[in-house]
Structure formats: C-alpha cells, structure tokens
Amino acid sequence: MTEKEQFLNVLEREFPTTIKVLRAFPPQKADIKPHAKSRSAKDLAWNFVIEEKASAQALDGAIDLKRMPPAPASLQDVISTFEKEHRTFVERIKKTPDAELNKPVKFFTGPKQMGDMRKMDVLWFMLMDSVHHRGQMSVYLRMADGKVPSIYGPTADEPWM
C-alpha cells in the first residue's frame, strides 16, 4: 500500500466519526464557547472545512489562509459544506500523482515561521489536527448537553457493553 493509499484510508475512516460528532451537536447551541478565548462551536466546526481547503491549497503549491471563505450562518450549513468539500478533497487526492505529494510546500513550522514541508506531511499534519479539533468538539458537545458518540471507544452516552 502506498502512503497516499494509507492516508486516504485513514482520512475516510476518520470522516464518518467527525460527521457523527458534528451531527450530534445541538444546533441551537452552536454559539457556545467554553472560554472567552475559545472559538464558538460553529467556528470550531468550520475549522474542518478550512483544514481540508488548506490541504488542497498545499497540493496547489501554496497555502494562503487569507483566501478562506467565511463560515456559513448555521451549523447545519457548516456540516453540509464539510460533507461536500470532503468529497471534493478525497477526489483531488486520488488524482494527485504520488510524486507530487513528495514535493515541498511552505507550511507553518513554528509561531510566525514558515518552512518547507513535504506535501504529504502537510496532509498528515492537517488530518491529525482535525482529529485533535474533533476531540475539542466532543468537549463542546458535552457542555452543550449533547450526547457524545463513540469516537475511539465507548462514551457515557454510547457504551459498548
């Protein structure tokens, strides 16, 4: 199995879990924030779209976060956009030659620092970061009195036994 195939397998395995967490979120509580410095739940959910768009930009050769669209008005629209963008992103990766994924692209290497990273490493970084943000979203979900679905194992709301 190539690294691209491995990445696609993990990406496709994580996506349904992320959607399950997002769909469990009470839409009327999309503005909840655990702290004044934190993003709202809706803005955190929008981050999943931004990460896949930034990954697609990396495939194009340059990431420009200033070119990202603003979040839609509702959490449901964020989720719908994520579903659509994800399908587009998966197809884009499938069409990208493996050799292209080994080329460098400028990416964040520290606070206010950019350096060369292999495109495939950027994709892995963004995927792992989205898993991290999904974990944050599960905390928001609990705070919003939503039912936290199973992610990598049972939860109080979705026990396995």
Give the termini distance in whole angstroms: 35 Å
Provide mean pLDDT, rounded. Answer: 96
Number of strands: 2
Gyration radius, to the nearest Å?
A: 16 Å
What's the helix-strand series?
HHHHEEH
Derived structural class: mainly alpha
Proportion of residues in helical segments: 55-70%
- Which spans of ≥5 residues are poorly predicted at pLDDT below 50? none
Q: What characteristic shape results from the CA principal axes?
A: globular
Beta-strand percent range: 5-15%
User: With helices defined by DSSP (H or I, 4 residues minimum), what is the helix count?
Assistant: 5
Strand order within the widest beta sheet: 1-2
- Please outline the major beta sheet: 2 strands, antiparallel
Please tell me about this protein's structure.
- This protein has a two-stranded antiparallel ribbon.
- Strand 1 and strand 2 (113-118) form a beta hairpin.
- By secondary structure, it is mainly α.
- It has helices spanning 3-24, 41-60, 75-95, 98-101, 119-143; strands at 104-110, 113-118.
In short:
By secondary structure, the protein is mainly α. It has helices spanning 3-24, 41-60, 75-95, 98-101, 119-143; strands spanning 104-110, 113-118. The chain contains five helices and two strands, in the order ααααββα.
Write the layout of secondary structure elements.
Blueprint: H1 3-24, H2 41-60, H3 75-95, H4 98-101, E1 104-110, E2 113-118, H5 119-143
Antiparallel strand pairs: 1-2
Helix pairs in contact: 1-3, 1-5, 2-3, 2-5
